Amino acid sequence: MVKPAADRIAKFNSKYDPLTVEARFTAAAEVAKDGFRVSASNAEAMERAVQAVCNADEIHTPNRPKYHNFGRELAKLIRDGVTDPALTAHAVVLAGKYVAWGCLEDTIIKIGLNVFSVIIPPA
């Protein structure tokens, strides 16, 4: 059975009513803001923890972005749901990569252990 055109038009008009659309966007914005607050605070805490390890080991300022990037990559693995023993294997590979780029192995191991509770065996 074919619906009358007036019913279809009324449904379309109610679906795209500016007040209805605004209410949907407002609800979605609140959910997105709450999610961002949580992820931003987690990222900030991780960055501060990596900064504390770099301060303790007296890493020079121009070299610190590499250590922060190591922390970000390890955090992404954890966020993506990688768990042991795969997480340790990935962390060993990441540590090797950043040591090859000139990072101190001891500092990388400390970041893994102190910030993420991941034991990275020395090479």
Short summary of the structure?
By secondary structure, this protein is mainly α. It has helices spanning about 5-15, 20-55, 65-80, 85-100, 105-115. The longest helix is centred in the first third of the chain and has 39 residues, at about 20-55.
User: In angstroms, what separates the terminal alpha carbons?
Assistant: 73 Å
Q: Any low-confidence stretches, pLDDT <50, length ≥5?
A: none
Total DSSP helices: 5
> How many β-strands, per DSSP?
0
Helix content: over 70%
Please report which band the strand proportion falls in: under 5%, 5-15%, 15-25%, 25-35%, 35-45% or over 45%: under 5%
SS-derived structural category: mainly alpha
Order of helices and strands: HHHHH
Could you describe the largest sheet, including whether it forms a barrel? none
- The whole-angstrom Rg is 24 Å
Number of domains: 1
Global mean pLDDT: 91
Shape: elongated
Description:
This protein is 76% helix and 0% strand. By secondary structure, the chain is an all-alpha fold. The longest helix is centred in the first third of the chain and has 39 residues. The model has no long low-confidence stretch (mean pLDDT 91). The chain has one domain. Helix 4 packs antiparallel against helix 5. It has 5 helices and no strands.
